[in-house]
Amino acid sequence: MDINLILSAQTLTLAPQIKRSELNNGLIILKNVSTRTYLRVTPEQWLILRKFEKPNMVPAMLGEAIRDRQCLALGESYELILKALRADILLEPGADPQHLLAHDWHAKVRPNVLKRPVVILFCFGIVLALGFSPQLPRTVLDWVAGILILSLTLSFGEFLSGCMIRGAGGEVYRPRWNWAALPPHFYVDKEDAIMLRSDDQMVVALAIPSLLAAAAGILAWHAPGMAFFSLLGLVYTLRPIMGGRVTALFHVGGERATSDAEHDYIFPPNRTPRARWRLLGKAIVQPTTWVRLAYGVLWTLAILYWAGRLTEIPPWTLRFWQLNGLRIAVAIGGSLAILAVGYALWEVYQWSRDYAKTRTNTIGLWQRRWFGGKSIALDESSRLKLLTASPLFSPLPPPKRVELARNMVVRYYGPWKALGGDTDIPTQVSIIVSGKVSLRRNLQSGRTAQVQILSEGDVIGLHDLADPKNPGYRLRSMTPVVVLTLERSAIERLITTSVPQATLVDAVLKRPFLRRISLCRNWHLQAVNRFARLSAINDYPQGEAILSEGQTVEDFFVIFEGDAKVSRNGRTLATIHAGDFFGEIGLMQNSSPNASVSAHHRTRCLRIPRVELLRFVTHNYTVALEIERVSSERLGRPLFPLKVGDFRSI
User: Fold this and answer.
1) Residues 181 and 147 in one domain
2) Which of 476, 499, 522 is the last residue of a domain?
3) Is the pLDDT of residue 319 over 70?
4) Do residues 164 and 114 touch, judged by C-beta distance below 8 A?
């Protein structure tokens, strides 16, 4: 599964044979009838999937959802698309997944007809099993009869479950005799029961346990030596973990269950410790979690009780609990504690591994800059590779790049050294191979101020051509610096005749700036280059309104240079600086701002029109996730999904 292709350029369509269940516990079950695959979604997620009723691409779907104010949290949206594709709810046009036909099952019975008998039978069997004393099998007859009764009970329970599923409108798949089971018995695939109403699912789930409870109870009363296997089957069927079906029926207070897009993530950015801890915290506060834990404790105590009965140790006596009560409590509590500690240690390991990887990269870059500059190999092929990767030099014809690579000279500068002399017009053009350089500009007051920080791959010596209205740049190294240098006279005419002015501005001004601001720090380099191409540099004199309160947001802004004031009703709320951005919340939420932004002193901004930003964001999921994350932090609440009152924000 090529995630990048699917989320950016792949056309998808909703499968033609989709069956939808009623709303149960806040979820809708979608079924591809042809392939018998299922997906649990919320009503809001179903609205997103319906946008693929006609063939559509994910970026177009997201743009439509943002416009209609139906957009989910972006990580959830991407997870939903991938899970729907994996479950064949969404298909690529022309795809023909393998079909699975339902069995022609004729026997039917409505679950509500058997609801009361099943519950009575279950309670009756449990009371008998608790009241009488089952025994371990002692004779061959006990072994053979006990296993045979268990096999017949399971087979009839499976048959009865299939009849109720068909009676409620579901389908039965792959009925067969399961020889691999212990003991071998008749089996039907009951997964289609999830399409039924909650009450019907309860009856279907209790069919086998009720028969097992009845068999265990009657045998404990009439033939204790034969009851062991039925009792063992009952305990296993009612297990609280490892696929036990009964625990899935615990719903407290009508709370919304978790959809398939909200757990077991397959979208890589969702598979983070933070996301898993969030799921854990959500589960802890749900009553269902504590009911299941209580059921697990009750199930364990029932096993201890029956074990005591089988071994003739009376667990119902006060003496038994005086001797063993503390041990049992410690065993149960210790098991839960070990599980919690194990989970915490695993999450700490995951976080430490990711953090160490990030720190290793940072330390490695620092070491190369400060101590590895002299050892960098810069033969002709290495120089040509650097020029080819540069967005400024890559448009040049290959022979010209080869000629430049051959003529460039390697220069080394120590830290805190001036580069290029004190002239306003540099005499050399360089591309940074290693190190960091501070780009400073003369102000009218006579002092210099840092404008940008340049690093590997950036070009110096052409800023006056890229920004002719603002000459007077100065360069100073911040670390040891290695550059490839050529006389400006050898490059200037070549650049001005072969490279468009827009490309020059992008490569020299915008790209280095964007690479270092927090918004773009985690973007792919191609996304940074695309963002630079889409944006335009606008100048705003002091006091001019950049964004006005209450008006429709038509552009996205990033402060390129200077400061801006954020105000509401004439009162200043904050001052934002170079690298800060605004307008994205109104664009993404299709809302209007509740504050104004105006230039403070002389302000320059990168501006992207609304249509271009939405197209750019929806085609680059890493960009979309980063904008959503930063904007949510600024808002103090999630950017998506929208709630009542969220339609006016900066």
Assistant:
1) yes
2) 499
3) no
4) yes
Contact assessment for residue 585 and residue 591, using Cβ atoms and an 8 Å cutoff? yes
**For 283, what's the count of Cα atoms within 13 Å in the CB-facing half-sphere?**
12
> Kind and range of the H or E element at 463?
helix 463-466
Residue 650 DSSP label: -
Q: Is residue 260 part of a domain?
A: no
Q: What is the mean pLDDT of the segment spanning 499-511?
A: 90
Q: How confident is the model at residue 253 (pLDDT cuts 50, 70, 90)?
A: very low
Helices (H), 372-454: 380-389, 398-407
Tell whether 232 is covered by a domain.
yes
d(CA 130, CA 145): 21
Residue 352 sits in the same domain as residue 472: no
Q: For residues 211 and 126, state if they share a domain.
A: yes
Element (H, E) at 539: strand 536-540
56 touches 13 (CB < 8 A): yes
In this structure, the answer to whether residues 587 and 471 fall within a common structural domain is no
Q: State how far Cα 362 lies from the chain centre.
A: 25
Task: Indicate the pTM of the whole model.
Answer: 0.80
Report the CATH number at residue 43: 3.90.930
- Identify whether 183 is preceded by a cis peptide bond (ω within 30 of 0): yes
455, 542: one domain: no
Query: Checking phi first, is residue 276 left (phi over 0); if not, alpha (psi -120 to 50) or beta?
Result: alpha
Task: Write the DSSP symbol of residue 139.
Answer: S
Maximum average pLDDT range among 78-92, 116-130, 221-235: 78-92
Last residue of a domain, one of 371, 397, 421: 371
Residue with tokens 């004199």: 541
The string of pLDDT tens digits covering residues 192-217 is: 999 998 889 889 989 999 999 999 99
Do 536 and 426 sit in the same domain of this protein? no
Taking phi over 0 as left and psi of -120 to 50 as alpha, with beta for the rest, 636 belongs to: left
Token digits of residue 262: 């909200």
Please state which of the ranges 34-48, 220-234, 353-367, 482-496 shows the lowest mean pLDDT.
353-367
452 — pLDDT class (breaks 50, 70, 90): confident
Which residues constitute the domain of residue 54?
3-91
What tokens appear for 119 in the block? 């519950």
Residue 252 in domain: no
* Structural domain total, the chain: 5
In whole angstroms, what is the distance from residue 291 CA to residue 297 CA?
10
The DSSP secondary-structure symbol of 24 reads B
Q: Are residues 384 and 468 in the same domain?
A: yes
User: CA 111, CA 161: separation in Å to the nearest integer?
Assistant: 9
- 323 shares its domain with 441: no
Query: Does residue 310 belong to any structural domain of this protein?
Result: yes
